Amino acid sequence: MRRLFAFLFFLSNLSIVFAQVSSVVTVIPQPVQAYVREGKFELKADTRIHFPQGKPDWATAAQYFMGVAQAATGFQLTGLPFQTTPASLRENGIYFLPDETVERSEGYQLEIMPTFVAIRARTAAGAFYGAQTLRQMFGPNMGSSTPVKDSTWTAAACIITDYPRFPYRGMHLDVSRHFFPVEFIKRYIDLLAIHKFNYFHWHLTDDQGWRIEIKKYPRLHQIGGCREETLVGHATDAPPRFDGKKYCGYYTQDEVREIVEYARKRFITIIPEIEMPGHASAALAAYPELGCTGGPYEVAKTWGVFEDVFCAGNDKTFEFLADVLKEVCALFPGEYVHIGGDECPKTRWKACPKCQKRIAAEKLKDEDALQSYFIRRVGEILSRHGKKLIGWDEIIEGGLPAGATVMSWRGTEGGVAAVRAGQYAIMTPTSHCYFDYYQSDPAQEPLAIGGFLTLQRVYDYEPVPSTLIEEEARFILGAQGNVWTEYIPTPQQVEYMAFPRACALSEVLWTPANKRARGDFLRRLRIHFRFMDNMGVNYARSYYDVKASYNGGYVSLSTNDAMAQVKYTLDGSDPKPTSPGMYSPIPLSKSTTVKAAALVDGKFPGRVLTVHYLVHKALGKPYTLSAQPMQYSGGEKYALTNGSIGALRSWANWVGLQDADFDPVIDLENTTPIQKISVNFLVGTGHLIYPPRSIEVFTSNDGENFTSAGKRDIRVDELVGNRIETVSFNLGGVGARYIKLVARRYGPAPKTGDKTWLFLDEISVE
Ligand code: ACM
Ligand code: ZN
Predict the structure, then answer these.
(1) In this predicted structure, what is the pLDDT of residue 48?
(2) What string of DSSP letters covers 600-645?
(3) Which residues of the chain have pLDDT under 70?
(4) In sequence order, what are the beta bridge partners of 740?
(5) Which of 33, 434, 654, 707 sits at 20 to 30 Å (Cα–Cα) from 668?
C-alpha cells in the first residue's frame, strides 16, 4: 500500500471513492482489497497491451488476456513489448508491469483508471491473476468466445490489491471411468484458470481404463484403455445391467504434451495420477503377470473397489512402475506425481506367496506395512526423477512415507496426521470437496454416486482444521475439488457437477477467511452466472431451487436468491411469470400439488419444485414407535404424518428402520370416522431396502384395546429395482381415536443374510 499512495499522489488528482467495494467489484474469487474510484476504463479496438520484452512468461500472461479479449470483442488488439518499465503510462494502454515491491509471489495490484490499466506483479503468475480479475471487471460479455455485437467494454475504475490465501488451489478430473476429449480438457483448464486455480489433478488410470500412452508398454492403452461394456444405472441397483457397448479412450503422449503446454500458458500445473497398488484392473488386464494370481483380469465394467491389485512381492511390478513413471515424469514438468494409494484391499496379498515372502524378508508387520513399503519404493523411483510423491490418505496406514504429501479425503484425519509429522497435506474431504455428490434434491437430479454437498456447504468450508496450531497449519497447502466420473458420462455433466461448486471453492482457497461472506458471494455469483452463460458452461442451477416447508396448515416457499421472486401454482400447472408470488405462507385445506419456481429477470433459470401435500385426517398428528429411527428419521419428528411422501433416491425423506418392525400408534386426538388408511414403502434391494412381509392395521378408542381392521401379506414377486409401493385399507367409516399399524420387517437378505431396512412414509387417513 505504501507505494500505491505515492503513485496516486503523482499521477492522479481524482478523488478516491471509498465506496462499498463489493457492489462494483463482482469478481469471483473475491479479491483481498478493492478501492473503487470515479469513472471507468474503456477497452477499444485501438487499446494497446504493453508487456515486458524478454520475459516469455509475461508475454504469455499478456497474450492470454489479448486472446480472450479479442475473442469477446472482435477487436484486433495490439501487443507492444517494452524494454524498460515506462516512467509514465500512456492513455488507452493496458500495462503488465513487473514490480518487485508487490508482496506475494502470486499477488498483483490491479489499477484501473479512466485513462489506463496497470497490472503490477512480482511474477508472471501474479500478472495472469490480475488479468483474470480485469477480464471479469469488463463484465459478463467478456466470457464470450465469439464477438458480442453492440457491447461497450468498460471496467469500473478501482485499485485492487490481491493475493491467494493458499498455495495449492486444485481441481481434479477422473478420465478413467469416463473419457473426455482433449478439447474438453482444455476447456476445463480454462474454467479453472478463470477461478485462479493453479493445479489440475488428472486422474489418468483406474480399474475402468488406462488413459495415457506409455511407449514401453503399448498394451496399457491398447488393452487397458478399453472395457467391453459399462454398467447402466447405479452400482447398488440389483441386478446389474450393462450397455453392451465397448468403451475406449486414451491420450497419446503428443496430446499430453499439448495439454501440459496449454495448462502452462494458464499458470496451471498438472499433477498426473497413476493409481497403485489398488485400482489397477486395467493395468493388470494388459499385463496379468503383475497381479498376485496371474489373472486373467478384465478392465472393470462396473464401479467399486476391486480385489486384484499390483503384486507387492514381485520385483517385476517395481520395474514396470519405474518404467511407467519414467515416461510420466518426462511428460509432466511439475514437481508432483500422484500415485493413488487409496482403497487397496489386502486379500490377494494375504494369499500370495510372493507378497508373504516380501513381508518376511523386509521384516514388515503386516499387509498395511507392505503397502507402506510399496509406496516408499515408488517414492524412491520418483525422487530419482526429482519428483515429489502425493498419495491419498491410505498411504499413512502402515506408517507415513517420509517426504510424501498426503491428500486427505476420508475426512481430515489423514491430513492432520501428516502435518503433525511435519509433512504437507492437501485437503479433499468427501464432506466438502466431492463434487460427484448430489448438490440438490436427489429425486430431481441426474443420477449421481450419492452423498449430498450443496453450494453453500462448499462455500462454508474451512480447509484448516481448528485442532491445528499455527505452526502445523502452515503445512496445509490448500484444498481440491474432486470430480469422479462413474456417473458423469459427458463433458456437459462434468460442468454441471463442477460448477458453481468450484466457484465457491475458489473463494475458499483464494480469499482471506475473514473476507468470505456467503450472502455477498451469492450476489456476485448471480453476475458470474452470466459470464459463464456467455462461455456456454452447463453449470447447475440449484442456486435457484425453491424450498418448501409445511407448518400448521401453511406452506412457505423460499429461494437462495434474494432478488428472485417465488412464483407458484396450486393446480398442477407449471408456474408462469404471471402466477401468484409468494408473499406470505399459503394456507392448504385440501390435498394439493404445489409447484413453484424462482423468477429472475422475467425467466425461471432454475427448476420447478413439485410437492404433493396430502391433507388428511392424521396430518400433523403425533405417534409413538417402539423402535426409534436413527440414520433415516425422515427429517422431522413426525415424518410419517407430515403430509409429504419421500421420493425415489431422496432417502432423507423416508423413515427407515434396520432389522426392526414398524408399529406406529397414531393419536387422532378425537374419535374420527375413518374410510381409508394408506401407507407407502420403498423397495431398493440393492441398498438393502426391502418390502415388509406384511402390514396390519388396528383401531382403538382407548389406546389400549386394539381391533384388527385388516391385514395384507406383501407378495414379493419382484425384489429387484427401485420403486415406491402403496398399500391401502378400506375401513368403511368406522370411528376411532387411535390407529395402530404393524409393518413386519423382511428379515435377513436372501443369500447374504445381511440385515435389511424397512422404509415407510406417510400414513394417510381419510
Ligand atoms: C478416493 O475417493 N478413493 C480417493
Ligand atoms: Zn502378490
Answers:
(1) 97
(2) BTTB--SPPEEEEE---TTTT--EE-SS--SS-BTTSTTGGGSS--
(3) 1-22, 717-720
(4) 665, 698
(5) 654
| Distance, CA of 31 to CA of 510 (rounded, Å) | 8
Mean pLDDT of the chain: 93
Pocket mutation for ligand 1, best pick of 274, 338, 342, 426 (most atoms within 8 Å of C-beta): 342
Identify which ligand lies nearest to the alpha carbon of 370.
Answer: 2
Query: Domain 542-613: which CATH class?
Result: mainly beta
Q: How far is the CA of 348 from the centre of ligand 1 (A)?
A: 20
Ligand 1 and 661: CB distance under 6 A? no
pLDDT tens for 425-457 read 999 999 999 999 999 988 889 999 988 899 999
- The residues carrying an active-site annotation are 206, 279, 343
CA-closest residue to ligand 1 atom 3: 342
Atom of ligand 1 nearest to the CA of 407: 4
Topology (CATH) of 168-535: TIM Barrel (3.20.20)
| Delimiting residues of CATH 3.20.20.80 domain(s) in the chain | 168-535
Which helix (H) or strand (E) segment holds residue 359: the answer is: helix 353-361
Asked if residue 342 has its Cβ within 6 Å of ligand 1, the reply is: yes
Domain ranges in the chain with CATH number 2.60.120.1190: 623-765
| Angstrom distance (rounded) from CA 408 to CA 275 | 16
For residue 342, how far is its CA from the centre of ligand 1 (angstroms)?
Answer: 6
φ, ψ of residue 410 to 5 degrees: the values are -85, 70
CATH 2.60.120.1190 describes domain 623-765: yes
Q: Which atom of ligand 1 is nearest to the CA of 340?
A: 4
Distance 354 CA to ligand 2 centre (A): 5
User: With pLDDT > 70 as the criterion, what percentage of the chain qualifies?
Assistant: 97
Say if residues 135 and 195 touch (Cβ distance below 8 Å): no
Is residue 721 within 8 A of residue 686, CB to CB? The reply is no
Tell me which ligand sits closest to the C-alpha of residue 317: 2
Question: What is the C-alpha separation between 9 and 602, in angstroms, rounded?
Answer: 47
pLDDT of 463 reads: 98
**Intervals of CATH 2.60.40.10 along the chain:** 542-613
Q: In degrees rounded to 5, what are phi and psi of residue 73?
A: -90, -25
Query: Which residues 6+ apart lie within 8 Å of 335 measured at CB?
Result: 269, 386, 387, 388
Q: Which atom of ligand 1 is nearest to the CA of 482?
A: 2
Half-sphere exposure of 208 (CA within 13 A, CB side): 22
Ligand 1 atom 2: residue of nearest CA: 409
- Hey, whose CA ends up nearest to atom 1 of ligand 1? 342
Task: State in Å: Cα 288 to ligand 1 middle.
Answer: 24
The DSSP 8-state label assigned to residue 727 in this structure reads E
Q: Specify which residues 48 forms β-bridges with.
A: 78, 93
By three-state DSSP, how is residue 283 classified?
Answer: helix
Closest ligand 1 atom number to CA of residue 343: 3
What class is the 2-162 domain? alpha beta
Type of residue at 357: K
C-alpha 125/C-alpha 197 separation (Å) is 11
Q: Which atom of ligand 1 is found nearest the CA of 484? A: 2
DSSP secondary structure string for all residues of 206-275:
ETTEE-B--TT-THHHHTTTEES--EES-TTSSS-EE----EE--B-HHHHHHHHHHHHTTT-EEEEEEE
In the chain the first and final C-alpha atoms are separated, in Å, by 72
Q: How far does the centroid of ligand 2 lie from the alpha carbon of residue 387, in Å?
A: 27
pLDDT in the model for residue 13: 33
Res 11: pLDDT: 33
| pLDDT value of position 718 | 65
Rounded distance from Cα 355 to ligand 2 centre (Å): 4
pLDDT at 649 (0 to 100): 73
Residue 57 near ligand 1, beta carbon < 6 Å: no
Ligand approaching nearest to the C-alpha of 394:
1
The 8-class DSSP code of residue 393 comes to: G
